[in-house]
Write a structure and sequence with these properties.
Elements: H1 3-27, H2 31-37, H3 53-71, H4 80-105, H5 111-120, H6 122-140
Helix pairs in contact: 1-3, 1-6, 3-4, 3-6, 4-5, 4-6
Length: about 140
């Protein structure tokens, strides 16, 4: 693996996930749905306000690194279309794991939001995968 491609893929993927994730979960009308999920049952008032953007940015970089690892050394995943699919799959599996693990061990959220969240994550994951594939693909040539 080329360290330069990995670093650049991680950076552009992290930025993409951060921007699209913020748009979906903070600016879109869906926020009402997730606000309810963060205040269901005994888990009242668990949403952090204000959010710690530095922590969200670090998590977004980690997400970008994971998608980059799935794309960077796979010749067939270097096209934008293949990157979109790879990113969507990685994002879905990442959040399916995290959401259902948290649902199983904590009282944060509800089953509806737990099931919907990984589906919504198809969008930022796919976008990150497409951007990473486009940028890393240019670095190969």
């Amino acid at each position: 693996m080329n360290l330069k491609r990995f670093a650049i893929g991680t950076l552009v993927g992290g930025i993409t996930v951060f921007v699209i994730g913020t748009a979906i979960f903070a600016l879109a009308p869906l926020i009402g749905f997730f606000d309810y999920a963060m205040n269901a049952g005994a888990a009242v008032g668990v949403a952090r306000s204000p959010q710690l953007l530095w922590a969200v940015a670090l998590a977004s970089l980690s997400y970008g690194a994971l998608v980059t690892l799935a794309i960077v050394d796979r010749p067939r995943a270097s096209s934008v279309g293949a990157g979109l699919v790879t990113g969507a799959i990685v994002g879905f599996l990442l959040w399916f794991t995290a959401d259902f693990m948290l649902y199983g061990v904590s009282n944060v959220g509800n089953l509806t939001s737990t099931a919907v969240s990984p589906l919504i994550e198809l969008v930022p994951g796919a976008a990150a995968g497409g951007v990473i594939a486009a940028v890393v693909g240019k670095l190969r040539s």
